[in-house]
Amino acid sequence: MSEALHRFAGPGGVVAVALPVPYGDLIEGWGELRRRMLRDVAPGFSRDEWAYLATFLDPSSLRGHFARNFGESVEGDGAAVSALYRPRGEIAVWLPNNVSLLGPLTLVLLSLTGQPVRLKRGSSAEDLAGAFVRYAIDKLDDGPLRRLLESRVTAETFGRDDPRNAELAASAAVRIVFGSDAAARAVHALPHPLDSVGFSFTDRRSEAWLDRDSLDDDTLADLVRVFTIYGQAGCTSPRRVVLLDGSEGEVAALAGRLAEVWARVAQGRVPMNIASDTVKADQWARALGWQTRVVGENGGLLAWGSAGLGEFEGHMALSVQGATVAQAFEQLPANIQTVGHALSSPDDPDLLRRLARSKVLRFVPLATMHHFDSTWDGQAFWKGCFEVTETG
Amino acid sequence: MTALLHENAPFGPRDDAAFLAEINALTAAHIAGCGPYARVWPAFEAADSVEQLPWLHVGLFKSLEFRTESAEVQHERVLNSSATSSGVASRIVLDRESSALQAASSLAILRDFVGDSKRPLVVLDSARSLVSRDVSARVAAAMSLKPLASDLHFILADAGDPGSVKWDVLSGLLDEHDELLVYGFTWMLWLAWADDVLPDSIRRALAGKRVQFVHSGGWKKLESLSVDHATFNARLTDGLAAGSRVTDFYGLVEQVGIVYPLCEAGWRHVPVWADVLVRDPWTLASLVDAPGQLQLMNTLARGAPYHNVLTEDLGRIVPGACECGRAGKRFELLGRVPKAEVRGCANV
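Above: the input entities. Below: the structure tokens describing the complete assembly.
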């Protein structure tokens, strides 16, 4: 593959990025695939997932990753270059058994580096990333992207004790692990090149914060949609809704309104095991002192109550509590990832100061809680796939 | 509250009114003595039918430890379920009176299926499993057969290793006895005994002996090995004397004391001190002759409100009389609630 040198102007000056394939060609390929994706849904994907994936492949959106990480594209080669970025090399990705759309999304971003990508998934996993690669190869005309996917992307299936894990770690310049804390520790503990880098996307929790000025029906519908895509299994799904400065009565009223919106937004029956899980969650919550309301035919649960009530779990169970801003920060779980907000003043200086002292990794509008980017869990993992030569 | 157990054969005519009265009283005792249970069912009043009775989802016993306090209840040990796919065990708080009732109940039920002649009981488990203060489901099931046995022999050196059978112990028993009672978890019985692993000397010693095999724990592991009931039973009874039999019973630690052996006609019968409902998973409506989630209840459990649980097993109430001659309600066990994939971000 021929090498392409691209220039970008950022706040620190012009940088050059060396890529084995012109990134515009790859983005054009993804754009072509996106147009074909509008006609069907690949097996294994939900309609919501497919629609999000298609949106993610929008060429201007993909160019945005270069702009955010390197700067605006610069034509010509006359400008002085302050730094030269080159891909580190082979990228290994460990996907867990129940990984969501994050697998395909990560793959799309990594493809833009033009580097070999080896995907490892668990033996019982539904292989969304592998399925997407196969779909793309099948649908794309011959071109740089199809050739890249055919020749440089491999998807393998094996267990956590398989010796191929060690082979992956030993050969990869970049290790990306989705999974439990223990799984990530185990992967990074395998012998690996000293100059390689590793990123871990482990078990995280998220919350949604609202204030009473933001409780319109559209916002509540956004909240329900964001939650019901993955329920509690999604690291970017809100497990808890916090009504800032909300009284007990306001919290109960919010739960009631959410239940009504949920019933309108819900699409059909949930699977039998989810219905059963909702029944369990309802009883678990009530045993701990929560007030509850079951939505639809055991399709989901809203539980509300005061601070200090014990935690309960349920795939489609969403809890609602009131708290002051200070209490909301104090009550954040240790593994907090995203706080999705619907607040009248999300850029309030006091809020930002508290945010700075917290471990919150994403503080984003409610509707964008699941939006995936080249910086994830607070880590600039995509830019981390490049190493830099200072030239200034 | 135990008249049904003490005064009746397990599979005689049902007295539904007496059952409802007993379980209403038991439920009221749990509501009064167990705060979390009362919070789940705050509006309890004596029910007019078993369908109206309060129940708990079986999965709650993996998350919370329920305990009913009362002057009459003396809590003793904790019973743990076997490992599940979730890796989390249910914990059932046992009490002295219930333990006695549960032992009497399982004995009455099992006697009806395996007879009551005294013979050695061979358990595919390790004797070390008896030592723990917390009781495993496997040990509890084995001990429910003890009253039907002349003596007890744990023949695994390692409780988790089907390759650790102490064949010399079994050989000695076969030298001295013509009848044996053998209990094991279904998968363990297959791997340790039925799957072509018997030494030739044991196979010869077994020829012509009458052996009653009793197993429980479910077929999940054997399904992955493509072993069906017929193969399982044929392998176990191959070469044995007439009257040898394999009895598969269904039971939950959350319903300890009540076991549901498969009858000769292929159904499971409900003893008169228990009841079974089937509920629609989405509406929770009670169903007859249609598949749904099994709800199991009994009048034995005093120490905690595990007397009435909604399971994650699927079943169907089968109308009509059974060819096997047992009276009362019967049902078909259809397996577990299917697990649709739960997709998330970071599987543990």
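Note for the figure: The longest helix of chain B spans residues 96-114.
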